[in-house]
Design a protein that fits this description.
Layout (H helix, E strand, L loop, with lengths): L7 H9 L9 E4 L2 E4 L5 H20 L23
């Protein structure tokens, strides 16, 4: 089995060109593109509650929390529940 590794720049080009789009529900982890499971109600509820709890603390410290948004790292572009 062969695994192809992608850079963040190449992954972004796949998104920008429409080869991958929002309906594909995927993320880049250590150069590999993985499918993301669709959210289920308990997971969504927990993510929302966590965001509501963390947001005031983060704002007080001068940070802006992000929920379900991609972040760019050296070789990854994950979509964490909260960052």
């Amino acid at each position: 089995r062969r695994v192809f590794r992608f850079s963040v720049a190449h992954y972004q080009k796949l998104l920008d060109s429409g080869v991958l789009d929002g309906d594909d529900r995927c993320e880049l982890i250590r150069g590999v593109i993985y499918a993301i499971m669709p959210p289920n109600p308990p997971h969504s509820y927990a993510s929302i509650r966590l965001g509501l709890l963390v947001s005031p603390l983060a704002a007080a410290a001068g940070y802006i929390p992000r929920a379900q948004e991609p972040i760019v790292l050296d070789d990854s572009q994950p979509q964490p529940d909260l960052s």
